[in-house]
Design a protein that fits this description.
- It is a single chain.
- The chain is of the alpha+beta class.
- The protein folds into 2 domains: 142 residues, Beta Barrel (Elongation Factor Tu (Ef-tu), domain 3); 102 residues, YaeB-like fold.
- Strands 1-2-7-6-3-8 form a 6-stranded antiparallel β-barrel. The protein has a 5-stranded mixed beta sheet with strand order 9-13-12-11-10.
């Protein structure tokens, strides 16, 4: 069986850690660009009346790797791993994904969507309408997920962090506020699921690519506060011409600002 993508997803998440585990919880806006000259504009006729659609896509960043078991994205008491077929993990024998997104508009062969959990550039295999009468079963059991159900942590930001993150975003860098919220709203100190380290009593640092997010966690209130943003490069590394991530110009500009803590 050979499948040709019908289009590509465009959005703000370039790396895996920037995408939510389920778009309905914290997904961002994006668009599906269908390929031209295949009559896809006609194939979209009538779709604008649906509030939600299914996107069938390819996990194209996994390099053909799959795993028979996976760790639950949110820690579950007494459960270390589950079977891949009992999860939504991307490491599957056939790297096919399925996501239910909100349809915001149809423009020719462009679908504007919200609550998406796809990475920018993801190949799209198919588009199907979401039909509540056939697709929604709110009382259905959710297996091991019910054992780990808990309210997420509230993630707040300090003025200093907001100013620093806004500079990065306006300079063309990642949205570090959104990504830090995604990473820290569940089990903020779980280093098996994110690049995080304890730095003191109730304090930690989250590594997002070459940025370092300093935060505090109030266990009683279940509140994480993002208090500072730093570059992970040393001055010597920034002075070097070697630039494997093509981001040193951003970090040089960032480290020259007074808001750096």
């Amino acid at each position: 069986m050979t499948f040709d993508p019908i289009g590509v997803f465009r959005g703000g998440a370039a790396y895996k850690y920037e995408a939510p585990r389920q778009g309905v919880f914290a997904g961002g806006a994006g668009r599906v660009e269908l390929v031209p000259e295949r009559n896809f504009e006609m194939a979209l006729r009538g779709l604008e009346g649906f509030e939600r659609i299914w996107l069938v896509f390819v996990f194209d960043r996994n390099a053909g790797a799959w795993r028979p078991t996976t760790r639950p994205p949110v820690p579950v008491p007494g459960l270390d791993r589950v079977g891949t077929f009992a999860s939504r993990a991307p490491y599957r024998p056939n790297p096919i994904g399925l996501s239910c997104v909100r349809l915001a508009g149809v423009r020719g062969r462009i679908l504007d969507v919200e609550e998406a959990d796809l990475l920018d550039g993801t190949p799209i295999l198919d588009v199907k309408p979401y039909v509540p009468a056939a697709d929604a079963f709110p009382e259905a059991r959710a297996g091991w997920l019910e054992r780990g159900a808990e309210e997420p942590w509230l993630v707040e930001t300090s003025p200093e962090f907001d100013a620093a993150a806004a500079f990065v975003r306006e300079a063309g860098g990642p949205d570090l506020v959104r990504t830090a919220r995604l990473q820290l709203s569940r089990a903020p100190f779980d280093s098996s699921r994110k690049r995080v380290s304890h730095t003191g009593d109730g304090a930690g640092t989250l590594s997002l690519r070459m940025f370092r997010v300093d935060f505090t966690a109030d266990d009683a209130r279940r509140v994480v506060t993002l208090v500072g943003l730093r570059s992970g490069y040393t001055p010597e590394e920034l002075a070097s011409a070697d630039d494997p991530y093509s981001d040193k110009s951003l970090h040089r500009a960032f480290t020259s600002r007074e808001f750096v803590i």
